[in-house]
Amino acid sequence: MTLVGVQLQPQHCALPDLRAAWKAADDAGLDSIWTWDHFFPLFGDPEGDHFEGWSLLAAMAADTTKAKLGLLVSCNSYRNPEMATDMMRTIDHISNGRAYFGIGAGWFERDYDEYGWDFGTVGSRLTDLREALPRITSRLAALKPGPIGDLPLMIGGAGEKRTLKYTAQYADAHNTFGPPDVYAHKMKVLDKWCEKLDRNPTEIERTVAIDTSPTQLAWADDLVAAGATHIIVMTPAPFDLAPALELQARLG
Q1: What is the DSSP letter of 40?
Q2: For residue 59, how far is the Cα from the chain centroid?
Q3: Global pTM?
Q4: 158-162: long-range pairs with CB below 8 Å, 24+
């Protein structure tokens, strides 16, 4: 069975609408609910309304009871990795063990510029991520109490030389995007990294994010054939859950 989730994009919306959407997604039986880790809209009016992701995730954890949940994905640059690990462990407890710890190297320059972080380069941000990952696993092992659930570590990104290697080294799940031929290639690269690093590739959950367009929804079967085990439908306000629910009914 292929899992189906929804990412609720926290831009151009009111907070009550977000809360109603994640409660509806949980009540409807979607497998996972996500938001993102940014500070400004990614598309549409750049000065439009926007809410911060980690705070939303904690509220989502308290408001829901069944679906797994997480950030797709958090940005390593924005927080000390030990603090982020403690925050996510706490959210895992609020959710009674349903949290993912999604993380990536970061890419949205406006967040960095307006909040005072050094944007650096793709290479420097990936180096920072590589240095953070063992710190995350070490801190997670030291926290008391530990997480209630398995708190899988998910890495987001598509880089073949570094990001996919880090997934094979450290992660329990990986998220990237289509189209299906590109996704299939990335999963083969991940498998090769697993082989080189003596990692069982079946230990890594394969998630893929698609939007609500008919074109991308039609990719679903080919994405599953390419190795996807969990499809996440990126859903903007006003948060129409029908595409994700229809996909779940078809793939379940």
Answers
A1: S
A2: 17
A3: 0.97
A4: 158/186, 159/126, 160/186, 160/189, 162/126, 162/130
- Residue-wise pLDDT tens digits, 53-112: 999 999 999 999 999 999 999 999 999 999 999 999 999 999 999 999 999 999 999 999
Say how many CA atoms lie within 13 Å of 105 toward its Cβ. 22
Taking the CA atoms of residue 220, residue 243, residue 1 and residue 197 in that order, the dihedral angle to the nearest 10 degrees is: 50
Residues 91 and 50: beta-carbon distance below 8 Å? no
Residues near 64 by beta carbon (within 8 Å), at least 6 away in sequence: 22, 23, 25, 26, 33, 95, 98
Kindly state the helix (H) or strand (E) to which residue 217 belongs, with its residue range: helix 214-217
- What is the 8-class DSSP label of residue 131? H
Question: What tens digit of pLDDT does each residue of 103-145 get?
Answer: 999 999 999 999 999 999 999 999 999 999 999 999 999 999 9
Prior bond of 46 cis (ω within 30°): no
pLDDT in tens, 31-58: 999 999 999 999 999 999 999 999 999 9
* Cβ neighbour number for residue 162 with a 10 Å cutoff: 16
Q: Which long-range contacts (CB under 8 A, 24 or more apart) does 112-115 make?
A: 112/77, 114/39, 114/40, 115/39, 115/78
